[in-house]
Specification:
Blueprint (H helix, E strand, L loop, with lengths): L2 H13 L6 H17 L1 H12 L3 H27 L2 E3 L9 E8 L2 E5 L7 H13 L2 E5 L5 H14 L5 E3 L4 H8 L5 E5 L2 H12 L5 E4 L5 E4 L5 H13 L11 E5 L3 H15 L14 H8 L7 E3 L3 E2 L4 E2 L2 E3 L17 E7 L2 H9 L6 E5 L3 H10 L4 E4 L13 E2 L5 E2 L1 E2 L1 H7 L1 E8 L15 H11 L1
Parallel strand pairs: 3-4, 3-6, 4-5, 6-7, 8-9, 8-15, 9-14, 13-14, 15-16
Antiparallel strand pairs: 1-2, 2-20, 7-18, 10-13, 11-12, 17-19
Helix pairs in contact: 2-4, 2-5, 3-4, 3-6, 4-5, 5-14, 9-10
Length: 454
Amino acid sequence: MDHQKIITAQQLYFSSDETKNIVFRKAQLKKLKALLIANEPALCEAIYKDFKKSTFETYATELSLVYHEIDTAVKKLARWSSRQRVATNMANFPAKSYIIPEPLGVTFIMGAWNYPYQLSLAPVVAAMAAGNTIILKPSEIPVHSSAILAKLINEHFPPDYFTVIEGGVEVTTGLLKLKFDKIFFTGSTTVGKIVYKAAAEHLTPVTLELGGKSPAFVLKDCNINRTAQRLVWAKFLNAGQTCIAPDYVLVDQSIEKEFLEALKKYIQQFYSENNFENYVQIINDKNFERLLNLIEPNKIYFGGNHNKTERYIAPTILQNVSFNDKVMQEEIFGPILPVITFTDLNKITAEVKQHPKPLSCYVFSNNTKQVEHLLHTLSFGGGAVNDAVMHISNGHLPFGGVGNSGMGNYHGEAGFKAFSHYKSILHKPFWFEANMKYAPYTSLKLKLIKKLLG
C-alpha cells in the first residue's frame, strides 16, 4: 500500500476546505455513531474473540464513551469552533481582537490494544470535530477488533477523508517517517519516545497518552468497605489491562488487615474462576508470561490461580510488598494488586515522588486536609478522591498524562483543542492612527509611550 499516496489525497481534500464546514463535521460524527450502533453485534463479537470481553463491558467501557464524545461534540461544536473575542490593549486602540480555531490538517492516530474501540475512536471523534482528515492505525494485537474497525470505516468513509491502515511495527515505522500535521499516540512510554522522536523530524505536534504506575492511597479514616469495593472494580476491570487502573495500593498499616479482608470479599463477590462473563483474558501469551513472572508466590495474600490455555490469571493481591520488589519495577497492566503499608504519610509520599509521574492517582480518605496535601504535593495526569478510574467517564475533565505518563490531553473540548490551532487576529480600522510609533522618535513621544505601555 502506498501510504504517501493516501496522505497526499488527504492533503488535497483538506485543502478544499470541505472538512472545515460545521455542517459537514456534524454529519460525519453522526454517521460514525450510526455506523457503530448498527454494527454493535459485530463489534462485540470481534472483541470477544480477542480477549473474551463481554457485551456488557464492551458497551460500558468502550462504545458508550465513544457515543458520549460524539454527542458532546455535535452539541458543542458550534461554540467550540466559533471565533472568540478577547480584550484589546490600549497600544492597539481602536481595534478588536479575536481568536479563530482552525483544524491542523492530516492527522495520524495510533490506537491501543487494551481498549481497541475507545482508545482508537475517541481521538478520531476529536479530530473529526476539529475539522481534520484522519488516518487511523489500530493496534494489531487484538486482530479481530482491528479488522472490524478497518472493514466498517473503509467501507463507509472515503479514504481521502478517513481511512484505517492495519499492520504491525513495520507499517507503523513506515508511516512515522512521513509528514503529518498531527500525531496522536496511545500506548507505552517506550514506544511513545519513538513516536516523539519521529515526529520531531517534521516538527509535527504530538499528543502522547502513555501510562505508569498509578498509586492509590488508602488512609486510616476512609470508609474501608466502600474503598475496597471501588478499588476491586477499578483494578480488575478488563483484567487490570487499563492504563489508569490503580497499579498499587499504599494503605495505612493500622487498617491493613481489615482492608485486605474487604478486598478479598469483593473479589469473591464480583468474580469467580474462569467466569469470563465478568472477567476478560490476558491479551496474549507474551503478556501472560510477563505477568506470571511478577507474582512472587510467598507474597500472595489472595488469588494467584492461572490457566495458560485460557490466558486466565485470577485477581491477585500481594502483601508485604516493598518498592524494591520486581512487581514494583514496571507498570503491571494486569490483575495483580500489590499492597504496601505505611505508618508515615509524608515519608511514603516522598517515596512516590522519587518515581516517574504516573498517569493517575487515587486518594481514599475523609480527611480533607490530607487529601488536599496529596493532591497538591504529587504530580500526576488526573485521578479521583474516594473513587478510581471513573474520572475518565466525565467528558468535562481533560484526560492526559504528565512527564513519562504523557503530554497533552483530550476528551470533550480538550480533544477539540488538541486537534486545532488557535489563530490570533488583531483587526484595526483605517480611520484612526496614533503616530507615536513612527519615526522620527522624540522625547515627547517617549514620554507618551512610557505612559501608554508602562
